[in-house]
Amino acid sequence: GAMAMEIIPKSRYPGDPQGQAYSGGVKAGYVVKSINGADVLSTDFLKVMDLLDDEVADPRFSKSTALALEKQGGRMAEPAPTPITVVYTEIPGYQGKFAELTQDGQDGYGR
């Protein structure tokens, strides 16, 4: 599965890819329950990232998309057809300690 952990606290401009979770009401600790109606609660994290076509949140893409995919042997899944419908859930009683992101001098966010 996959959990939202660091949410950019605002959308900087319409369609901002880094602010979509915040704009959609996603909060740190939410877990991806389903993608386009398919349950993904117990799906491998990297497969969930591929289904969401999320290279920003995916640690495999911290250096180079091509090298990361080559090392892994390719994608674990093709991106889900758009528009993507994502349903989140919460883990009852879970109290995670999530970093609060603050704006830096270059209109980015960090811990």
Task: Write structural notes for this entry.
- The protein is built from 3 helices and 5 strands; from the N terminus they run H-E-E-H-H-E-E-E.
- The strands form 2 sheets. Strands 2-1-3 form a 3-stranded antiparallel β-sheet, covered by helices on one side.
- The mean pLDDT is about 85.
- With about 110 residues, the chain is α+β, with helices and mostly antiparallel strands.
Straight-line distance between termini: 24 Å
Strand order of the largest sheet: 2-1-3
**Would you identify the regions where 5 or more consecutive residues have pLDDT less than 50?**
none
Give Rg in angstroms: 15 Å
| Oligomer type | single chain
Query: Shape from CA axes?
Result: globular
SS content category:
alpha+beta
| Tally of DSSP helical segments | 3
Could you give the count of β-strands?
A: 5
SSE sequence, one letter per element:
HEEHHEEE
Sheet having the most strands = 3 strands, antiparallel
Tell me roughly what share of residues is in helical segments.
10-25%
Look at the structure and give the mean pLDDT: 83
What is the percentage of strand-forming residues? 5-15%
